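Request:
Um, any thoughts?
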Amino acid sequence: MERKETILVVDDDPEIREIVRILLESDGYLPIEAQDGHAALSALSDSVDLVILDIMMEGMSGYQVCSKIRERSNVPILFLTAKSKDSDLTLGFSVGADDYLAKPFSYAELLARVKGLLRRYKTYKGKDTRNERAPLEHAGLVVYQDRNEVRQDGRELNLTEKEYQLLKLMLRYRGKLFSAQNLYESIWDEPFLYSSNNTVMVHIRRLREKIEADPQEPAIIKTVWGKGYRIE
């Protein structure tokens, strides 16, 4: 009999936990519940395939829990949160979250996010791949995180530090849509201003000139007009 995928649901609202538990059970998953951060860390084990984590909790916040989980595991983490400003999301990604879903959420969207995270985890990382310094590979590109080196089809690329950080961030979270503000606050670690958008655009353009076969028709770093950038 095939093992059910185990999902740890962390929320201090018992009604939310119950709703998510019933939804996951109806779709064939095995949910386990934790009412706060300490309980979540105690419940975390190698058998957990995904964590659904609330941000606003008393005591240890979801950000703190996420950071603690990342010290032990590379398990996918989905933030379920009422906080959906760009600055909140940037902070979430910076501590290791893989995706977020704003409250109130639709049941169909929650299940879609869960399935997508589990599928990408199995395809690109593997259940036992916990080394966050392992090489990131895509479309002939290899980012060696342990030595800040990028190669394309075996040839070393001469990237600036900001270009390297942009590429690494988007490759680590493939499929994630990053706004200019997400990227700026994550890479430059400064508050986003109106002029910051141009800074991001210039760096993306220069990065494309180094990694794209045709920078005018980019195949690696895609632009989602009016929203941002992503590597699919």
Remarks:
- Confidence is low (pLDDT under 50) at residues 126-130.
- The two ends are 34 Å apart (CA to CA).
- Helices lie at 14-26, 37-43, 62-70, 86-94, 107-125, 161-172, 180-187, 196-211.
- Residues 56 and 62 are 6 Å apart (CA to CA).
